[in-house]
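User: Could you go from structure to sequence for me? I need the amino acid at each position, not a summary. Structure tokens:
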């Protein structure tokens, strides 16, 4: 046992010199993040009403240099009426993230202080979210994002994501809401109406 412990510093040195990155302990990770994607009635008009929003609760689980691996702890989908009142809500905890690790890997300029624009390109997520009440049918969702290139006319919000999404109430043959490369407002969720 002593021999193994004595060899540990040498192994760590060897790992560092060979370019192997050792994951960071949880205490050294950035704080949890909330990211909300607001879907507007007129996607390119920031003044138009929000018809739906998709909120992600994220927790950092690993760090490799400037890269943080984020776990999507929950996805909350809310629909609004014309007066911006919440009419339906759904929740899926620990949704399926379609990456090799099941985590969302992001390179951050400062890993301890992530910025909102670094969350503008969510990976493919799909699943079934449970209705918040017994009267709300479950909702099948598919969400994937891309970032518009700098200078694009699609950059209509302070932080813009281009989202491919489909929201299909259980039992419906087709999505009731869908978009392809749709500009959506990306926020930290602090001033969300929900």
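Assistant: Here is the amino acid at each position, in order:
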């Amino acid at each position: 046992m002593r021999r193994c412990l004595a060899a540990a510093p040498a192994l760590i040195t060897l790992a560092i010199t060979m370019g192997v990155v050792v994951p960071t302990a949880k205490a050294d990770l950035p704080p949890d993040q909330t990211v909300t994607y607001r879907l507007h009635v007129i996607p390119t008009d920031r003044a138009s009403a929000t018809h739906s929003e998709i909120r992600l609760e994220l927790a950092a689980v690993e760090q490799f240099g400037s890269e943080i691996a984020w776990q999507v702890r929950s996805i909350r989908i809310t629909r609004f009426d014309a007066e911006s009142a919440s009419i339906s809500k759904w929740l899926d905890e620990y949704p399926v993230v379609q990456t090799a690790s099941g985590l969302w890997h992001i390179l951050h300029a400062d890993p301890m202080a992530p910025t909102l624009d670094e969350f503008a390109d969510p990976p493919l997520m799909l699943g079934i979210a449970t209705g918040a009440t017994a009267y709300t049918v479950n909702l099948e969702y598919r969400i994937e994002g891309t970032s518009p290139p700098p200078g694009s006319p699609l950059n209509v919000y302070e932080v813009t994501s281009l989202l491919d999404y489909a929201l299909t109430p259980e039992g419906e043959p087709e999505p009731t809401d869908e978009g392809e490369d749709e500009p959506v407002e990306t926020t930290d969720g602090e001033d969300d109406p929900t």
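One structural detail worth keeping in mind: The beta strands are 33-40, 50-64, 67-80, 86-93, 96-97, 104-107, 125-131, 139-146, 160-169, 177-187.
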